[in-house]
Amino acid sequence: MALSDFDLVLFGGGGDLAMRKLLPAMYARDRGNDLPATARILCIGRHDWTTEQFLEAVEKNSKPHVKGESLDEKSWTSFCKRIVYVKMDGSDAATYSALAAALRNDPKITRVFYLATPPSLFATICNNLSQAGLATPESRVVLEKPLGRDLASAKQINAEVGRVFSESQIFRIDHYLGKEAVQNLLALRFGNVMFEPLWRRDWISDVQITIAEEIGIGSRAGYYDTSGALRDMLQNHLLQLLCIVAMEPPVCIEPNAVRDEKLKVLRSLKAFTPTTLRQNVIRGQYRGGHVQGTEVPSYRKEPGANPNSRTETFVALKAEIDSWRWTGVPFYLRTGKRMADSLAEIVVRFKPLPHSIFAQSASSQPNCLVIRLQPDEGLQLNLMAKIPGDGMRLKPVELELDFRETFKMPRMEAYERLLLDVLRGQLTLFMRSDELEAAWEWVEPILKYWEEEEVEPMPYTSGTWGPAAASALIGRDGLQWREEALPEN
Ligand code: BG6
User: Fold this and answer.
1) pTM of the complete model
2) Ligand 1 atom 6: the closest Cα is on which residue?
3) E-assigned strands of 351-476?
4) What are the pLDDT digits (tens) for 454-477?
5) Cα atoms found within 13 Å of the Cα of residue 130, Cβ hemisphere only
6) CATH value of 6-144 in 3.30.460.40, 3.30.43.10, 3.40.50.720, 3.30.1600.10
7) Catalytic residue check, 175
8) Closest atom of ligand 1 to CA, residue 220
9) What is the pLDDT of residues 195-208, one digit of tens each?
10) Of 160, 327, 326, 346, which is closest to residue 237 (Cα–Cα)?
């Protein structure tokens, strides 16, 4: 669907997210000929700059984030002509006249306000937009995470933004939902008949979802030290992946059909009590070590981090879903920084054969479907096959689907897809207010317990897969994390 002309307003236009992700994503879509000729990007900032001066910052801070192979000087220059710098202060209502003067006043032109700012400014900006008469019924607002730090603050954001914009105008971003492989999971589940009959407790033994990063917290201590892995990754990205794996087939791909099903999953997650969370939730923090051969410091020695910080950089937990489809199937979720490898994957393990007719039943391995999100996107299905030759000897083999190889098409970054969806008004890949609140409701007892009991995170050496207790968590059920189960090279 071709886009209509638009004014995309970036609050936090000179900030890290705009420079590293949003402007490069818009450039990529411009280069892909998706943007109408007169569409514009209005970047808001408080510096007393002209557009020319702002573009110097874009050249320095944003252009290096455009992927080498897709950068082309001519198209970059023409993309920059779309950018207009607007000097104003989002928290000061008196300065909104500058934005009013810069925006085109035509209801046919899509107006999007992208709030790439701290969430403490969301309500103020929305109110100021409303008072200045800029939040028209056709306009849209995009909210970046963190969308709150607990249930109460998420509710407050929803209520305050909701006073100005209706739910159908609000786009809450979780960039994991924009990843190609996540959408492929929808295609896999609901575009094929063969998985759905097996996709349930009768045939699936357990599901593992891992997002592991080699990077540490870099220069983000200010944010991260007050957040931690549970808030930063699990409450949003991992739970969204879990929803897509576990949801019932929606009646169609329309936003509310999909979001209703995701909400049901969140609401069927078994609530933790202090006893069950002591057994099923592992909290870790990295110490110094080596990641891919490079020495890295302990979390507490990262620039800006509190030297006595109890913030977790790793969390692993066992979740259970109380529903006809999933009761009894553990979902192990895990995420951490400074891990042994950078990868994101979903592992669906099927049950063992009910009965083997082959003598070597001991070597039979249950089928396993691995959905890889990162670093490369693909699918792997492990099956048993006969070893050629005499005798009936079986061996596990892999069916591989590498999306890059199969489609030989340029990949779209998550932000490219999500920005296009915002500009089209397509809400399917964005979180609804009730989903956001249900996710916070489920993680809140963990946050509270850690805080009230002053739970120390378990130390783990950088460059490993986290505290040994994470292996024990899954080992207790007679299972292993996938990397532990793989044969050594
Ligand atoms: C962000 C988190 O939402 O996701 C970061 O705030 C994290 O801490 C990032 O590094 C991971 O995203 P991706 O797409 O690089 O896996």
Assistant:
1) 0.95
2) 232
3) 368-374, 378-386, 394-402, 458-462
4) 999 999 999 999 999 999 999 999
5) 14
6) 3.40.50.720
7) no
8) 8
9) 999 999 999 999 99
10) 346
